[in-house]
Each structure stands twice: as structure tokens, then as C-alpha cells.
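Late entry, evening session. Most of the bench is empty. Finally got around to the prediction I had been postponing all week. Sequence below, unchanged from the version circulated by S.P.
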Amino acid sequence: ANVTVTDLEELQELLMVNIENNKHLVTGSVRAKVLKWGEDVAEFQPPPDYILMADCIYYEESLEPLLKTLKDLTGPDTCVLCCYEQRTMGKNPEIERKYFELLQRDFELETIPLDRHDEEYRSEDIHIVSIHRKRAVGP
């Protein structure tokens, strides 16, 4: 696969270290780029086939920019796999609920059952959701 890994500017060096440390495993290509949620994503077009998200649901102020970025990045055939740890402390349950409520305005969600998670890494508090753009319905 041809992969783009993203994070904020201050984490680019760590991404590069991880790419270097794992280059022996890469059979396609991998590059690191800055992606700040809510900002222009033109350099990431055309839409990717897959977007893998891990632990991206963590504070309320990030929800709208994250959702905007997902809408801007995805095409009709993009599959988003969202993995997150369900947290029960503080405002976390409310933030998760709001994220999935807002997400369902433009996307269809399918929870991946625990028995389909990797046996070695599965855990009751780790969730994976498959996300696709809602199909436009004609008149």
C-alpha cells in the first residue's frame, strides 16, 4: 500500500523515527505529513481507500474539526476504521456519545464485534467501528 501517516507538526519527528524503524516491513511507500483537523485537506486528495483512526476521540473542542476533516477527506468508497478505548471517567462518555451522534449525520457506522478483533490484542474496552459516507439518495 501507499500510506500517509499524519499528526500535528510537533510529532512529525516521531513519525519519521517510526517510519525509519519499520522500513524493513514496508512493501509499498510511507510518508509523514502534517494534518490539523478542520483545516484544508487538498494535498490529501484524491480521497484515500482507507483511513485508520486510533484514539482520536478525546476532547469536546476537537469533535467539529475532526468531523469536518473526515467529511473533507472521504469519498463515496472510503472506509474509515476508528479504534478507540472506551473511557468511563469524567466527560469521556459524553464526548463519545456526542461524537457518534454527530458522525451519524453524514456517515453510516458498523461496530466490529469483539470476536472479529485480533485475538492477542482484543479487549472489552477497545472498540472498532467501520465508517462509510452515507450514499446520496436521488429524488
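Two things to note before I forget:
The chain is about 25% helix and 25% strand.
The chain has two domains: 1-34, 45-133.
Will write this up properly tomorrow.
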